[in-house]
């Protein structure tokens, strides 16, 4: 079977080595005579896996024991309301750095629970083509936290440097670029991410938060049980049945990351892949056009336009015929999008770039 060049934005490609390992253990995991999907989440075998995945995550991120790693469900979108539910109360407010659709959605949910300051890079006519500049970051000092989205899947922008919040706790939605590059864990108080782009299959949401920030969350009696960070931390994310198979796949993916050099190596590889695609765009004499300001270009989700909607439709159709799938832009903006997450190999990106060059020769 020939594997597709998979540029889906999420659920996204999973490393082939990881898939093969899961395939080999599907019917008999850890000599239990059962799949990991059939083992009790209260068993010693599963508990060991659960704790191992948390420790691998901390190790790769450069986090110490003061970081608590939670395995939740509901996707990153559930954190849009869970975060303010836990931290916003009467007299409290938060600041949101809005640089794309998902940070905009997070702000909308947060406003249901308290006052929020909005600092946005949205264009006057709508849409986003850049990350906020340092001079624009007028963050109220009395904010309970500052929220940002590190990478924007729809508009293809990414924070290349992290903002100085002047002591206000920094919270980050890292769903679409988590573990694609090193990041200074000590600069953050809480990060969260859906797993389905760089960490495994859908169904799992990771939340990592520092003990000192957890201590500021509302108490358990102030919130519904399943929406309290304190409850999930106290029960080691085992208050109810967790998404065991997705956590198992996460552990395999983290093991693959460690084996392949960790975040520094992955960061260099992802920059190399992105450079190849952007070079093909920039050297196309305008046939391909990337709308993002250069210093804000994403290394994960590369968006571009062709001369006409008909050309874009033809590109998607011919790419699929060539085994390159998932390249159609988000339905809200159109165009073309390459989502070149960790599991997208350098060879796959080279194949896609060769297709771009051939398509231009024939259609340009």
TrEMBL record:
Its cofactor is pyridoxal 5'-phosphate. Belongs to the class-V pyridoxal-phosphate-dependent aminotransferase family. SerC subfamily. Gene3D superfamilies: Aspartate Aminotransferase, domain 1, Type I PLP-dependent aspartate aminotransferase-like (Major domain). Residues 5-350 form the Aminotransferase class V domain. InterPro entries: Aminotrans_V_dom (IPR000192), Pser_aminoTfrase (IPR022278), PyrdxlP-dep_Trfase (IPR015424), PyrdxlP-dep_Trfase_major (IPR015421), PyrdxlP-dep_Trfase_small (IPR015422). HAMAP family: SerC_aminotrans_5. This is phosphoserine transaminase. Its EC number is 2.6.1.52. GO terms for molecular function: O-phospho-L-serine:2-oxoglutarate aminotransferase activity; pyridoxal phosphate binding. GO terms for cellular component: cytoplasm. Transmembrane segments: none annotated. The lineage of its organism: unclassified sequences, metagenomes, ecological metagenomes. It is an enzyme of class 2 (transferase). It catalyses: O-phospho-L-serine + 2-oxoglutarate = 3-phosphooxypyruvate + L-glutamate; 4-(phosphooxy)-L-threonine + 2-oxoglutarate = (R)-3-hydroxy-2-oxo-4-phosphooxybutanoate + L-glutamate. The gene is serC_3. Keywords: Amino-acid biosynthesis, Aminotransferase, Pyridoxal phosphate, Serine biosynthesis, Transferase. Pathway: Amino-acid biosynthesis; L-serine biosynthesis; L-serine from 3-phospho-D-glycerate: step 2/3. Coiled coil: none annotated. GO terms for biological process: L-serine biosynthetic process. It comes from bioreactor metagenome.
